[in-house]
Amino acid sequence: MESKAFHVSLAKNPVISIKVIPGHFTNNSIHISHYIDVSRMKSNAMIARDVAQEMAMPYLSSTIVNTIVCMERTVVIGAYLAQELLQYGASVVNSGGDIHVVAPLSNINGNLVFQESSIGWISNQNIILLVASISSGRTVDSALECLAYYGGRVVGISTLFVASPNTRKVNALFTADDIPEYRMFSPGECELCKAGQKLDAIISSEGYNKIK
After folding, report:
1. What's the DSSP call for residue 197?
2. What is d(CA 28, CA 138) in angstroms, rounded to the nearest whole number?
3. Where are the domains of the chain?
4. What top-level class would CATH report for the domain 2-210?
């Protein structure tokens, strides 16, 4: 499986790339033909800084931001993104301001929550929601529901990779169009299953576990 992996680089900055592994994968809702590994962008500080520079572009001159909410371990990117949005410049609307970078927790019922100490950075604040990747959209839906509950105003959604178009505007570095033959299926309609191709791994925001 790993031997078939390849990389797709961002045209504007080839240092930024995703690792793509072809196969047959599943998460808790869909089957997917390729696993998109964005872990290096989340964990490597130098690359995360370049990623943040690209992610800041849609917001620099137009969007007031008070808080960046980081999902799926994107806090390193979120911190650099805040730094980019606060840089000095006549056309940078957040220049000289203050941006908090936070991540929600999950309670015993699996619902997203914020600690009391950080609720003030969510309620009535302008928020960028930062997500590692978007496939089914369930993570985004859950985060938006949580932020609405706390009274936050989402002014942008940014991600490293988005699998399919959505009714919401999403700022993504990579899309499924960048991956040849990328496909998603509901479990009951999976063409890979119908062709007799066994599942290779179960995937999550943390990585994947091979199915023995």
Report:
1. P
2. 10
3. 2-210
4. alpha beta
Phi, psi of 185 (to 5 degrees): -140, 150
The residues, any chain, with a CB within 8 Å of residue 150's CB and separated by 6 or more, are: 114, 119, 122, 123
pLDDT of the chain, 212 residues: tens digit per residue: 778 899 999 999 999 999 999 999 998 889 999 999 999 999 999 999 999 999 999 999 999 999 999 999 999 999 999 999 999 988 899 998 999 999 999 888 888 999 999 999 999 999 999 999 998 888 999 999 999 999 999 999 999 999 976 667 899 999 999 998 999 999 889 999 999 999 999 998 888 899 87
Burial label for 75, CB within 10 Å (0-12, 13-18, 19+), is: middle
Give me 186's structure tokens. 């509901």
How crowded is the C-beta side of 63, counted as CA atoms within 13 Å?
23
